[in-house]
Design goal:
252 residues, alpha/beta, Rossmann fold, OB fold (Dihydrolipoamide Acetyltransferase, E2P), 2 domains, 5-stranded parallel β-sheet, 5-stranded antiparallel β-sheet, 33% helix, phosphoprotein
Amino acid sequence: MESQIRTIIVDDELLACRRLEKLLKEDKEIDITAVCKNGVEAIEQIHEKNPDLLFLDIQMPEINGFEVLQHIETDLMPATIFVTAYNEYALKAFEVHALDYLMKPFSKSRFNEALGRVKNIIAREAQSNIDEKVDQLLKFVHNDEPLSRILVKSSDHYSFLKSEDIVWIEAAGNYVRIHTSSKKHLIRETMTNMVEKLDSNLFFRIHRSTIVNVEKVKELEKWFHGDYKVVMDNGEKLTMSRNYKELLDRFS
């Protein structure tokens, strides 16, 4: 038997979760690996289970479906079927950019149609198509709106970190380490993605492994060979490479 499609359901409505579970259990190709009642649980389970397919409700409290996807790295992005009660106008975005969607309440035939379509995409291993579709949809919905908060894990729970509280960010292998005035947070993300997600008016890359919040910069000191030292308001000194001089324009 071929490997099953690892699937996660995310919906804050219990009845909606149960219906999706019932329909999915009728398909022997599907393996339901998790059922999540909110976006925070979804992010945790996606990182832990690395699913192939996600049934994702959009309108959820605290963190919505779009924000869930914003917190998932490209290499972990599953094929996604959105479950939504959005109005007809908003659905145009899904028709153009989404892999597929289910409009609540949906029929069994519509469910099977969406599932069949996405299963074909997964079978063709068109991961690049999946990534592109999700990225296009997020850009359409948010209109390139930068992240105002980031989900971070502290011991055994998740919490939100306001982007304005970030002092600087450093690369740490396949992760980034976020420095605030009092804590450090390690999250699985790339420096390139962080630059793209954060407000470009506030966050500057000063080195291939360093991003700073310009509001937390105290001063710049000339260093050797055209480099500078960036002095943060907490006293830390960071090296700005000659290849990353955009910050100078802000201080000139």
